Structure prediction request, 826 residues.
Amino acid sequence: MIKLTIDGKKIQTGKNTTILMAARENRIKIPTLCHHDGLSPLANCRLCVVEVTEKGRTKVVTSCNYKVAEGMSVETKTENIIAMRKMIVELLASRSPNVKLVRELADEMGIKDTRFVLENEKCILCGLCVHVCSEFIGARAITFSGHGSEKIVSAPLGSSAKDCLGCGACVEVCPAQCITMKDIEEARTYSSGDHEHLGPARLIHNWNVRVLWKKCRVCGNMFPPPSPMKYLKEEKPLPKQFFETCEKCQ
Amino acid sequence: MKVKSIRDLNKLKSEGEKLLRPKNIRVQVGTTPYALSRKARDVIEKLKKELDQQNIDATVVRVGCVGICYEEPVVEVIIPGKPKVTYGSITVDKVPSLVKAISKGKAVKKYALYRTDQEEIICSGKTFSYASRVPSDYKKIPLACEFKFFQPQVRIALRNAGIINPDSIEEYVARGGYSALSKALTKMTPEKVIDVVIKADVRGRGGGGFPAGLKWKTCREAKGKEKYVLCNCSEGDPGIGMHKTLIESDPHSILEGLIIGGYAIGAMEGYIYLHYGYASGKEKLLKAIDQANEYGLLGKNILGSDFSFSIILKEGAGAYVCGESTALMATLEGRSGEPRPKYIHTAEKGLWDCPTNLNNVETWCNIPPIISRGAGWYGKIGTKSSKGTKVISLTGNVNRSCLAEVPMGTTMKEVINKLGGGIVKGTKLKAIGVGGPPAGLLPASLADLPIDFDELVKAGSLLGSGGMIVMNDKTCVVDMARFFIKFLEEESCGRCFPCREGIKRMREILDGLSAGIGKDEDIDLLQEIVDCLSEASLCDLGKSAPNVVRSTLRYFREEYKIHIQQQVCPSKRCTM
Ligand SMILES: Cc1cc2nc3c(=O)[nH]c(=O)nc-3n(C[C@H](O)[C@H](O)[C@H](O)COP(=O)(O)O)c2cc1C
Ligand code: SF4
Ligand code: SF4
Ligand code: FES
Prediction:
């Protein structure tokens, strides 16, 4: 066990725990946007910053990826930390004023107006969709492209995400709820004249894909792409051939 | 030929000496890309032709860069038994009269910049004498040490720049090259090498000034079978040519440093990370690596020891942020060049999660002389907390842009006046930007500050990679801040929120100020963004990006206020 203090409170926790986990175990709230319990930390949003004092030295770190250590003292709500979080949320609220979660965060922090020119981006670029797809699903169907303020998430090269399995994990993890997914009963080829009927399919608009139902490798019935969320939540790896097997035969 | 012992190395050395100081005349011409752009190639052709026609027994050699950019093409003439003479701004039409003088064993005073009677060989501490007696016509030419450009300089990293043919391993060895490697492999344990580097207190030249020895030690002690040493030649800063000069003038000094580092740390492989599309540097390095392999200074059982090491050259993606250590390693692994959060040091978990030690090129170039001559020698140069020298690339509103190496502790004023020949006529010094875009702008009143890692940080700037931009009173600091911030906005990888969104917003505010639509509140807002970014950003690009705004707000706040309140730009740079 490791002993440390968070906001003056004496705490014990296991080795390999992050500050964020230790804080949550003790009902100390630290805001996060790009953190997901089932995935390794991204540390992109920087909202979870805290002040850490170790061996007499104090520094600002992100709690989602900084491990606890014996004798460490953590402050999660200093003036400096609050000011930084507020600035990050204000910046975010200017980029994405219509994202519900962002609005809630701004309200919580007492930010009424932002002092920057308003934009209307639906995606906050937290990176969770790309991360879950690559780290947990293993499909690597979507990526970031561009850099700096031009950065976006999209299918590779902006075309269609041909490796997308249609599992919807990205939709589920997206804190901005900006990925739209729809099931249709009858997909067709796009050519004019005679349409070929392809059967039921799932569309994910952001990645420009249409994923057709598959035949189960066991029972042979057609089935929609299964949701991996149960496993992600329980932090268990996906079973083998998960996407080839219908829910009943799993 | 494989060099397997000190005796073999000495053989190579005497071959090199024959090249450096031949029985006939040696004419050397600087051929860096900048010299070539000023027609150095034509000068070489003309020299060869004239020397041939006049039946003079001479060899024309291409060398690297001495740093007197404003005098390129630079030609040096070594006539046996006479002082070496350095001529500046040699054009094709000046060649005939120069060759005529050479044929008579004379010097041409009107083209001459300075002469060298004797030269210290940095790696050995010995002095080489060109002439024991100086002929009277040579005496009229000033000595190198009287030449203003060299007065403040101590050239350790640039010890061979402009003196040797960079394609010749023999000439490098003749100047004491690879003797440090031989010393390390035969007389020192890896721990002892690290000990010397720690005692010498060399701090990283790539920007952070982190003590190299400590990093080496952590990496040596880190668990892992495979370890790597890397050399950062990324140089994404605009308009700075430091890495280029080192690579193109003396590639073997980088290799030797890296091999010694590999031995000390326990690595078997080293990577040199080169800026994308940098063909001339790539060619020089590849050639040097081939030579070192051929002579057994790289590869299996180096110099007959148990130590084996290879060096691989990798071309990077070219973005500025790829020079950041974790982004650099990601690029080497074939992933996109984005920084990663690093609470675990790359010395413990770096390239492919193996212990990895990254140093800047200039840091590596400093290693061989330190090993040869010891920490005590090195410690005498520089200041208390910043030892040694720093290569400085000087640009902006000075009379002469140049590249030079000065001991730490040299003041910025000395650099501007002695190396740069002062501020452009009729104007006054206003601000100095040290260390490229992420550094702060310091006011003229701080020109007496020494070049020193800690002093500059205290003043709100950074030594960074040593790029120094001098600005006169025609410069608008708001405009300058906007220029740097724009650069950083484009170069931010966009991964983390504060950097991506914050830099963009700073740019918008600065755009507003320089368009005459700034508001009183803008100053506080800028300050708030600065405070957030400098601590909350993921990597040092975002953390140091606000420096330019922070420093100008600190030293030039009035100018911001004039832009806002009177809607005028005192320097008439911003179009309102
Ligand atoms: C945005 C950014 C760009 C950088 N570019 C370079 C570079 O071009 N060359 C370099 O040597 N170091 C660069 N660095 C510093 C490196 O991350 C690293 O600290 C350095 O190479 C370590 O070597 P040193 O300790 O010998 O200085 C950069 C850092 C950042 C944050
Ligand atoms: S789409 Fe959603 S999950 Fe993906 S980066 Fe944007 S906000 Fe994050
Ligand atoms: S600070 Fe800037 S460059 Fe560094 S990771 Fe964040 S967005 Fe990328
Ligand atoms: S939750 Fe830690 S940086 Fe986003």
